[in-house]
TrEMBL record:
Pfam families named among the record's database cross-references: Peptidase_S10
Gene3D superfamilies in UniProt: alpha/beta hydrolase
Signal peptide: 1-17
Protein name as catalogued: carboxypeptidase C
GO biological process: proteolysis
InterPro entries: AB_hydrolase_fold, Peptidase_S10
UniProt keyword list: Carboxypeptidase, Glycoprotein, Hydrolase, Protease, Signal
GO MF term set: serine-type carboxypeptidase activity
Domain of life: Eukaryota
Similarity-based family: Belongs to the peptidase S10 family.
């Protein structure tokens, strides 16, 4: 039932802004500026056969806290292994939807009690980074953004911190998404690639676009 509930909450965020999770709120009270970094190094859900990391990275002077879930490639990693940054659209949809129902290394089981290995996961030959953005999408929380470009600036700052913490994943970066991500993806390309010393290269792809 936990997985079913989690998936329900993810879908609900496409319509309603989600408040700060209770356990995160309690922890954040100890840090008035918010967490600069809060993660679980090895989650046991989804694909325990690969290295994982999930948690929050704070951006915009710690006023926004972006939730991510990262999976290493199933193929032995090397310095040129690409990183796929996946962004769902909406605007306001959680990228965990793409993880659990799309390109991720696992799917929710039919009974909703757990996850099952997805042989078609895109982490066969690439690292996968799912990011809930902008703030208040999915499990991310904090100050609201007022434009797609503001959201892109937060993603660029997120990536800088991510690569500082995980310098081993400096392969080419591919920013991908669907639906309203047709706005997010191009907007993120410029600030992510411009002057970001930890980012090796950037290109962009988007499916089922909504670019009105």
């Amino acid at each position: 039932m936990y997985i079913t509930y989690m998936l329900y909450m993810i879908v609900a965020t496409c319509v309603f802004a989600r408040p700060m999770p209770q356990n995160t709120a309690k922890g954040a009270a100890k840090y008035p500026g918010g967490y600069p970094w809060d993660m679980v190094q090895h989650p046991v859900l989804c694909d325990p056969s690969v290295q994982q990391s999930s948690g929050y990275i704070s951006v915009s002077s710690r006023t926004k806290h972006l939730f991510y879930w990262f999976f290493e490639s199933r193929t032995p990693s090397h310095s040129n292994t690409p990183v796929i940054l996946w962004l769902n659209g909406g605007p306001g949809c959680s990228s965990m939807t793409g993880l659990l129902t799309g390109i991720g290394p696992c799917r929710v089981t039919s009974d909703g009690h757990s996850t099952t290995w997805n042989p078609f996961g895109w982490n066969k030959d690439a690292h996968l980074l799912f990011l809930d953005q902008p703030a208040n999408s999915g499990y991310s929380y904090g100050a609201n953004v007022t434009s797609t470009w503001d959201a892109a600036s937060d993603v660029a700052e997120f990536l800088q911190t991510f690569y500082q913490k995980f310098p081993q994943y400096r392969g080419p970066l591919h920013v991908m998404g669907e639906s309203y991500a047709a706005h997010y993806v191009p907007a993120n390309r410029r600030p992510a690639a411009s002057g970001q010393q930890h980012i090796h290269a950037v290109d962009e792809h988007c499916g089922r676009q909504w670019a009105v």
